[in-house]
Amino acid sequence: MKAFKILVGVIVFFILAALIGLAWQWLFAQFMPSDLYATLTELHTFGVRSLKLSLSVCGLLGMICSYGLCTYTIKL
Predict the structure, then answer these.
(1) H helix or E strand, kind and range, residue 67
(2) Separation of alpha carbons 66 and 68, rounded Å
(3) Which helix (H) or strand (E) holds 55?
(4) With the CA atoms of 42, 46, 48 and 51 taken in that order, what torsion angle do they form, in degrees rounded to the nearest 10?
(5) How many angstroms separate the CA atoms of 44 and 63, rounded?
(6) CA distance 19 to 65
(7) CA 55 to mean position of chain CA atoms
(8) pTM of this prediction?
(9) CA angle 65–53–32, rounded 5-degree value
(10) How far apart are CA 13 and CA 28, in angstroms?
(11) What are the percentages of helix, strand and coil residues in the chain, rounded to 5?
(12) Angle 57-75/2-31 helices, nearest 10 degrees?
């Protein structure tokens, strides 16, 4: 039963991170110049060829905010 709770928590975390990341992207599109918006929303790749990580600033902000919300609600 504990493994099921962890699995549900991980799924909720990633869904919430995606929605928050899309909200950040929308905010960047509305309020920033187009050249800065393109820089913040394009995928940046880190690492070697077999172990690379591609993410955008919006996705990273979404994951950080989602982590904060999930840990806050778990503490309640």
Answers:
(1) helix 57-75
(2) 5
(3) strand 53-55
(4) -90
(5) 15
(6) 10
(7) 9
(8) 0.76
(9) 50
(10) 22
(11) 75, 10, 15
(12) 140
pLDDT tens-digit series, residues 12-50: 888 988 899 889 889 888 988 888 888 888 887 877 777
Between residues 45 and 64, which one has the greater pLDDT? 64
Rounded CA-CA distance 8/69 in Å is 15
Nearest C-alpha neighbor of 53 from the set 64, 63, 43, 41: 43
Amino acid at 54: S
Q: Show the tokens assigned to 74.
A: 């778990």
Nearest-angstrom CA–CA distance, 55 and 53: 7
Structural tokens at position 75: 């503490």
